[in-house]
Amino acid sequence: MTKPYSVTGAGLGLRRSLLEALSGVDDSVDFMEVAPENWINVGGRFGRQLREYTERYPLLCHGLSLSIAGPTELDWELLKNIKRFIREHQVRCYSEHLSYCSDDGHLYDLLPIPFTGDSVKYVAKRIRQVQDFLEQPLAIENVSYYAAPQQELSEIDFICAVLEEADCELLLDVNNIYVNSINHGYDAEDFLAALPGDRIAYGHIAGHFVEAEDLLVDTHGADVIDPVWHLLDSAYQRFGVFPTLLERDFNLPPLNELLAEVATIKTRQSAAIAVANKVLGSQKFELQV
Q1: Three-state DSSP state, 260
Q2: Which among 141, 168, 194, 254 is least buried, having the fewest CB atoms inside 10 angstroms?
Q3: Domain boundaries, the chain
Q4: Model pLDDT for residues 226-263, shown as the tens digit of each residue
Q5: Is the pTM of the predicted complex or chain greater than 0.85?
Q6: Domain 10-280 listed as CATH 3.20.20.150
Q7: How far apart are CA 284 and CA 48, in angstroms?
Q8: Which pairing describes strands 59-62 and 31-34: parallel, antiparallel, or unpaired?
Q9: β-strands 209-212, 215-217: how paired?
Q10: What CA–CA distance (Å, rounded) separates 51 from 33?
Q11: H or E stretch at 264
Q12: Contact 195, 160 (CB under 8 A)
């Protein structure tokens, strides 16, 4: 199993609605990410535009419908298409959600996995199958969830067990940690500290919706708030500066505002590097790849 060359810096999720607006953007964005399901077998104008972007920027893929914890057989036809897409566009990393979204058909939502020992073994086996088929690591994202059916393990213990059992990578979603910490009443910093930093492939940061004081909804439809930025700073301090992508799926602001949040990621990465260099003295500190 080989590991594709990675990315550095700050990235942005590429949406079709942004194709025209981003055409003149150069070094404001270091890499981009797409959901492969939205682009596989797309031709015509959109296909040509995607090719223009993948020739200019390193590309990551963040899957939506693999349903890694689902009760039915893995979708091997989808995986064949994803493997071809990865090779066609030199995709640097493929990630998916630690969740499921299908049974006999797709449910169009991310459903919570029971945090049990049996689930660890089941999900890890499927992750290993995917990695073997793709011949590269799979990065699994810690997801937001709003119920914990049949819970035997804590969320952090479950995630760490899956990562270890599957020997896969982690897509660290900082906003999801914050959202879950409010909704389920745990300390976000403690959760962060317990993660295996050496497995981080890259990170996500996003905004959310405040339904109530004790209920946040992970929407990717708002600006990133200060506590989430501060949690990202903590992650850099603990694990080193890893590639980080801004997720924004709807309520898209003007492009200059969107790029300003990407610039904020870069500013925080630079600040973390400066602090590390000061601590380490003459020892050079660089972006984690």
Answers
A1: helix
A2: 254
A3: 10-280
A4: 999 999 999 999 999 999 999 999 899 999 999 999 99
A5: yes
A6: yes
A7: 41
A8: parallel
A9: antiparallel
A10: 13
A11: helix 255-280
A12: yes
